[in-house]
Amino acid sequence: MPCCPSCGVKIPLDILRVTPAPSNATPPTPKQSRLLGFVRDYQTANNGVSPSFEEMQTALGLRSKGSLHTMIKRAALRNLVTYVPRCSRSLKLVEAMPC
Question: DSSP state, 85?
């Protein structure tokens, strides 16, 4: 069973299911594009570590973590990101699979 990268808690494999986005997937919204760009830049600058909710909230100029959480959940439904609920810094980008 794999561990959460930030806290070491054991994570059941069914939570970590990643379904690659189909080639005809809906593109991200402008706000989701800003979020994905920030996460990608942050992970590049910090050796693959994901930003915290507070860091994402500040970078995107959002007033509440609830609106950020909704944005992340909708991005996950579009298979743009994956995350482990209640586990800090577990957000991962789902890269397009080459054909």
Answer: T
How many Å apart are CA 14 and CA 16, to the nearest integer?
5
61-89 pLDDT, tens digit per residue, is 999 999 999 999 999 988 899 988 888 89
Q: Does the residue 12 lie in any domain?
A: no
Judge whether 19 lies within some domain.
Answer: no
Is-contact 10 64, C-beta < 8 A?
A: no
Backbone φ and ψ of 66, nearest 5°: -60, -40
CA–CA dist 46, 36 (Å, integer): 15
Residue 64 covered by a domain: yes
pLDDT in tens, 22-53: 555 678 889 999 999 999 999 999 998 999 99
Q: Determine the residue type at 37.
A: G
Give me the numbers of helices (H) and strands (E) for the chain, helices first please: 3, 2
What CATH code is carried by the domain that includes residue 65? Answer: 1.10.10
